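Hey team,

Filing this mostly as a record. A colleague (T.K.) asked me to run one chain through the structure pipeline before their review meeting, and I want the input and output archived in the tracker in case anyone asks later how it was produced. No errors, nothing strange. Just documentation.

Input sequence:
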Amino acid sequence: MDMNNKEAITLDWLKRYTGTDPSAYGDWILLTNFQNYVEKFAMRFDLKINGIGGPMTSAINSDGLSIINFGIGSANAATIMDLLSSIKPKGVLFVGKCGGLKRTTEIGHFILPTAAIRGEGTSDDYFPKEVPAMPSFKLHKYVSELLVEKSMEYRTGVVYSTNRRVWEHDKKFKKYLRRVRVMGIDMETATIFITGFANEINRGALLLVSDTPMVPEGIKTEEMDKNVNKKFVDLHLELGIEAMTKIEKEGERIKHFKY
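Output structure:
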């Protein structure tokens, strides 16, 4: 194996990081950064969870739909997208959580981002700042259609991705977020969009609003997180499963366009 070659490196590392042999992955992959999503996915399809004890975990159902918990943060998001380039999936959907920054984005709502501002820094290693972080339109079209069919409350708009985990006390940063008019904030979406573009992987994100951190009473606490998990996570995961299954069954080609 030529370990000076990107494909050889990522193919070797994919199993080591996720615990799943690269040949076992199908064309469609759900990404998350919460282990309970993988556990619920495995329970739903009666599957074994791979990679327990390692940096990432994964599971694959009989239809070839996979889920990977890549961990928290933009560096991990970039890592998994680089590793997935070795198997060339047809599409990945990030089912993550975000903070809602507008009065109209309440806990339990979903955001289907039209773009993400690259405040995390990791994506700078892939493209200059001028390159926008955007999802693949056709993939998001399927997710949007599913949400409409189910009469789900959701928003579209721009989200902000940051490497800062504790910023809720910073009035200057909050003022900046208001100025750039973003709808939500997370740590990974911009990275997934940019690294998907760099690796020619179709990508999308369906974000669950789990807190409203612009006001003190909306900052996430342990109790709030437990309540969100209890009320909304099953629905969030199910929407991801249904959307990716729908794409697979209908078979419409999602083409990766280069700028």
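Quick notes for T.K.: The longest strand covers residues 91-100. The radius of gyration is 17 Å.
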